[in-house]
C-alpha cells in the first residue's frame, strides 16, 4: 500500500511516496562472497530481477553483506540501474545528465543535490498521478460515456412510458369491468 505525504516546498506541493508493508521491518537480502543474493524471508537465492520486482512493488528491503553486515543496498541499486542503462531502449539517464551529476561530486552543491533530486522526483510523480486522474476523468466523460448515458436515460424514459401505458391499460380494463 502506498502512502502519500503532502509536503509544502515553496510554491509547489510535493508528494513523497513511502512504501508501507504489513510488517515494519524491511525484507533482508544477504549477499554472499560468491556474489549470490539470498532472500532470508523466503529462504531462497534470488537475482537482480527479483530485487527489481521488489522495487516495482514498492517493497522495502535492505541488502546486507553476509559476513560483515555492511549495508550494500545502494551498490545493488546502482547495479540494477547500470544494467538497465546499457539498453538504449530503457535508458533514462542521458550522457549529458550523467556528466552533470558527476560534476556535483566534491562540489559545494553536492549536499543539496540528493534532496533536490528526491523532491523533483516526488513532484514529478505527483504530477503524473494528477495527469492520470485527469485522463481517467476525461475518458469517463468522453463521447462514448456521454452517449452511453444518453442511451441509458432514453431507455429509462421509454421504460417509464411503457410502465405508464401498462398501468393505464390496467386501470381502464378495471373501470370497464365495473360498468
Strand content: 15-25%
What sequence of helices (H) and strands (E) makes up the elements? EEEEEHEHHHH
Q: What is the global morphology?
A: elongated
Q: Percentage of helical residues?
A: 40-55%
Strand tally: 6
> So how many helices?
5
How would a textbook summarize the main sheet?
4 strands, mixed
Radius of gyration (Å): 30 Å
Average pLDDT confidence is 81
Q: Kindly report how far apart the N and C termini lie.
A: 71 Å
- List the domain count as a whole number: 2
Structure class? alpha+beta
The largest beta-sheet arranges its strands as 5-4-3-6
Low-confidence runs of at least 5 consecutive residues: 1-22
Amino acid at each position: 500500500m502506498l502512502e502519500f505525504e503532502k509536503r509544502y516546498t515553496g510554491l509547489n506541493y510535493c508528494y513523497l511516496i513511502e512504501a508501507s508493508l504489513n510488517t515494519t521491518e524491511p525484507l533482508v537480502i544477504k549477499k554472499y562472497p560468491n556474489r549470490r543474493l539470498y532472500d532470508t524471508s523466503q529462504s531462497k537465492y534470488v537475482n537482480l530481477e527479483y530485487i527489481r520486482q521488489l522495487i516495482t512493488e514498492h517493497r522495502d528491503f535492505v541488502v546486507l553483506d553476509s559476513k560483515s553486515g555492511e549495508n550494500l543496498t545502494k551498490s545493488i541499486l546502482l547495479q540494477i540501474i547500470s544494467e538497465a542503462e546499457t539498453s538504449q531502449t530503457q535508458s533514462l539517464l542521458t550522457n549529458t545528465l550523467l556528466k552533470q551529476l558527476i560534476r556535483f561530486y566534491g562540489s559545494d552543491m553536492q549536499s543539496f543535490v540528493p534532496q533536490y533530486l528526491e523532491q523533483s522526483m516526488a513532484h514529478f510523480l505527483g504530477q503524473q498521478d494528477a495527469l492520470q486522474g485527469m485522463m481517467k476523468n476525461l475518458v469517463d466523460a468522453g463521447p462514448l460515456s456521454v452517449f452511453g448515458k444518453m442511451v441509458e436515460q432514453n431507455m429509462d424514459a421509454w421504460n417509464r412510458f411503457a410502465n405508464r401505458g401498462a398501468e393505464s391499460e390496467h386501470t381502464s380494463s378495471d373501470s370497464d369491468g365495473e360498468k
